[in-house]
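Much of the work behind modern protein science is quiet bookkeeping, done one molecule at a time. Below is the pair of lines this work produces for a single protein:

***
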Amino acid sequence: MKRFLITCCFIFFVGSSLMAQTTIKPGAGLNFTNVTGDGADATGQTGWQVGASFAFGNKFYTEPGIFYQNSSFEYTTVDSGPVTDASYHGIRIPLALGFNILGNSESSFGLRAFGGASSFIVTGTSSDFLDKDEISSPQWGVFAGAGVDISIIYIDASYQWSATNLQTDVTNIDLGNSRGFFLTAGLRF
């Protein structure tokens, strides 16, 4: 599945770059992830991401990207057991379709709306509570958002709904799906 996803992204990058204007957008930002499961109280904590995306097009555009992401949440059991911080990290691959509401890819000011799908491939965890093998990978999701371009600076805000359960085994505790707010800023070339 990973090979198929990488091959599709490569074909998309090459095909799109031959037909449209390309904007490279390195960036970094914060994410606020929460979970929807029952049987536990899990509260999202602040995480981060760093990576780049590539916008192809002018008024309408496609924007695939790749980001290294760290997400975390605080977990307490139903019987008020110990509080545990759970953290996991991996590669997030979003694919957005967007529309420049004001301006276009060459404007010094622009306002954009976008949406799309993403895949998150887990590479590890940073807690004793959560093991890498217990987390579903890849995790699939959909997102919607808006962005502002000012000269060579961009700021994107998006909300993602996961379509995949966070855990592979839900017999003891079901953390459910993740929901996340992403705020990313960077430069566009």
In short: Residues 22-187 form a domain with the Porin fold (CATH 2.40.160.20). The chain has a mean pLDDT of 81.
